[in-house]
Design brief:
The chain has four helices and six strands. With 175 residues, the chain is an alpha+beta fold. It folds into two domains: 8-69; 75-173, no CATH class.
């Protein structure tokens, strides 16, 4: 049994389009697109707020398009363990995973893992590595795989983990 997840292109393209549409709000706020409130005697425009919205939206849209176009595997789970390059440059073998926790908050879905020796795993995305300390301090393990924007569901990830490590689903083994 193998779990391989890639970015969900459709979701990221939708987010890019929504960013561009949201930038219209910024153009309204800074007065570029006139409305009844921006044509008042006091101006009614909020140029700093408007341009911040425009900059944020136009800054994020290309990132969403970049992610939508990436077709490589983001997560691979198989008999060797968990290969999650965003967290570590090497595969995390099953014997190094001490516990896990599946979290679902509204539409956000994530499976978090606690490692026996997190210092043994290096590399990965620096931002995700920095968040690891916060995750651990909050009781959410050393890293989490957020399945919300992947092309494979959280249930499939959990089924694969259960296949190789059913003990992680027993009462005392969870975070």
């Amino acid at each position: 049994m193998v779990y391989e997840a890639r970015e969900s292109s459709r979701r990221y393209y939708v987010l890019a389009v929504l960013c561009v549409l949201l930038s219209l709000l910024g153009f309204v706020a800074n007065g570029v697109i006139p409305t009844a409130s921006t044509s008042e005697a006091n101006g009614g425009a909020y140029p700093i707020t408007g341009w911040l919205i425009v900059a944020a939206c136009f800054g994020m849209a290309p990132e969403f398009v970049r992610r939508a176009r990436f077709r490589g595997v983001r997560v691979r789970i198989d008999a060797n363990g968990i290969d999650f390059p965003q967290y570590a440059d090497q595969v995390m073998p099953w014997d190094q995973i001490s516990s896990m926790l599946a979290v679902q908050i509204h539409f956000q879905r994530s499976v978090n893992f606690e490692l026996r020796n997190p210092e043994a795993f290096t590399g990965g995305n620096k931002l995700i590595r920095a968040g690891s300390a916060l995750n651990s301090a909050a009781g959410f393990g050393h890293y989490g795989i957020i399945t919300t924007y992947y092309d494979r569901a959280m249930d499939e990830l959990l089924a694969t983990v259960r296949h190789y490590r059913p003990d992680l689903f027993e009462g005392g083994a969870r975070l």
